Amino acid sequence: MRILFDIGHPSFVHLFVKPARQAISSGHDVLFSYRNKDRCDELLAVFNLPSLETGKHYTSKAGKLTGLFINSWHLFRVIRKFKPDIILSGASPYASLACGITGKKHFVFDDTENREQVMFYRLGSTLIFTPEPFLLHLGNKHVKYPGLHELSYLPGNIITNAKPKDKPTVFFRFVSWNATHDFFRNGLSVNQKIKLVEHFKNNADIIISSEQTLPSELTKYRYNGPVEKIHETLQTVDLFIGESATMASEAACLNVPAIYCDPVGRSYTDRLEMDYQLVYNFRCGESALGNVINKADELLKSKNEQNNYKDFSRDYINLSAFIYWLIENSNLENLKEVLLKKEFFKQFKGIG
After folding, report:
1. With respect to CATH, is domain 2-147+316-348 assigned 3.40.630.30?
2. Which helix or strand (DSSP H or E) is residue 32 part of?
3. Which of 243, 114, 104 is nearest to 180 (CA)?
4. What is the pLDDT of residue 338?
5. Domain 169-311 CATH assignment equals 2.60.120.380
6. Quick count: other Cβ atoms within 10 Å of Cβ 189?
7. What is the average pLDDT across 306-335?
């Protein structure tokens, strides 16, 4: 079988790396197509995955519209040459447009309720997979699973090597706010970021991962380690604070208390707070800063020992195992019916 994974963000490299490696070891031909956002090329190289760049990452609204056709054309040409049997993507509008033209089987994985993005990928998709809390209803192509994208690669690839600390470590993640689902939204202001870090800098070690250029006051805290090692670093910290839903969810998977700041929020981080107390959600705004600091101080003091991580690890599935099952069973005539059986996902329970 020939399998194409289409990638537009490093989180989707992580999402597909385990099933891709398993497919390669089973004798399948695999190729990753990608737009190079936030060091996707470095990750693919480190993981030694066969890959090909198919266009660029556009940041402006006009650029994204232009890029929809340019990048889809590049991907169309790759599909014609590589001749994949199936294509898996992280909500890629380019893959959907190319698959709509070529008629290729396209499985979409999405966890963000972005109606504009859904509009583009829905038409050219075969099935769409989302976590159970996903708020949009995407018709007869939609399959919900009890899990998170981040459970495709965490925590099974992390080796714990905890060392005694003199003081806690706080990990901050700031995003660029130029993704399609970020249009007309803003996160923490520069002033808020500085105030947040200043609150902790005397009593905690600080690590900052940022898609944006940091103000001079914060540059000394920037994470400069290997891109593929960032999750090993994240596992060793005592608290996560950031604007990235993906990294907040990653922290939750690693049993690190997380504070997520966003003007709208995400359904799956809301669920992680409501059911498991693993993420705490705050809407961005000038009034939010004090609440974020108060919650952070509380979590550092209590170490969030009252969370329900054991229930979380029992309730959710090993997503990489399911993705590989999907690859191997993609030709089932009654695939959708099998996936919708009440007990189907039980075989993947336990995050590993």
Report:
1. no
2. strand 29-34
3. 114
4. 96
5. no
6. 13
7. 93
